[in-house]
Amino acid sequence: MKSEKIRKILKQVIIYFIIFIVMLVLFCASMIATYALPNERIQGHLRESKEFILNADLNPLFGNYVEGAKLDGFTDLLILNTAMNKGTGPSESVFVRAFENSRYSEEGGNQYLSLEQTLDNQEIYNNQEYSRYWHGIQTVIRPLLLLFNYEEIRYLFMVISFVLLGIAMLYISKNLSWMHAMAFMFSMLAVCFFIVPVSVQYIRSICNYITCRNFS
């Protein structure tokens, strides 16, 4: 009986270990594939959004007055800077770029100036590495930047988020009641749900949460 229990535990350990290795390989492969996408088109769409990125109101509606409604513009700029995938030099391989996740930072560390300078000057390469961090959001942002600019991506996230909110309300009303659905909607408004789709950083946080929930 005891040996059978040990075998079951060992079997579970082996299964979890295999799952871990498979997920690790998939995550690494997805990053390499993402960084292999054509940079010219991605950087072109970022240039299209340059004025919007640098001049957009980062705290729409009452974000200037409510702490929980403020956007994380600083991190959004870091993500977009990394998405440009310039590398630390022209001969740097895709494999190195995928795990280095480098970005350009001007001397003062101002992210607005850093992004503006690297967008305007093709001769500027990245001077900071960020390899210690998992940049899974790039597997979403870089493919989207092949098709859309930054402003269009924000609108896309807004449509998806509010459609999902509507589906959730219909599901709640069908299984519980419209009162429960309305309570859910008001609770989402209370936590400033509407600012999530206009921030790449907040979208990343939700993606990370969903991934952890699915594989935990």
Task: Set out the fold topology.
Blueprint: H1 2-35, H2 39-48, H3 50-55, H4 73-83, H5 94-100, H6 111-120, H7 138-147, H8 150-175, H9 178-190, H10 200-215
Helix pairs in contact: 1-5, 1-7, 2-7, 4-6, 8-9
Task: Explain this structure.
This protein has helices spanning 2-35, 39-48, 50-55, 73-83, 94-100, 111-120, 138-147, 150-175, 178-190, 200-215. It has one domain. The protein is flat. The longest helix is centred in the first third of the chain and has 34 residues, at 2-35. Helices cover 66% and strands 0% of the residues. The chain has ten helices and no strands. The protein has 216 residues and is mostly helical. Helix 1 crosses helix 5, helix 2 (39-48) crosses helix 7 and helix 8 packs antiparallel against helix 9.
N- and C-termini, Cα separation? 29 Å
Alpha-beta content class = mainly alpha
* Tally of strands: 0
- Overall shape: it is flat
Helical region count?
A: 10
Give the H and E element order: HHHHHHHHHH
Count structural domains.
Answer: 1
Spans of at least 5 consecutive residues whose pLDDT stays below 50 are 210-216
**Portion of residues in helices?**
55-70%
Largest sheet: none
- The fraction of residues assigned to DSSP E strands is under 5%
Rg over C-alpha atoms, rounded to the nearest angstrom? 21 Å
How would you classify the quaternary structure? single chain
State mean pLDDT (0 to 100 scale). Answer: 79
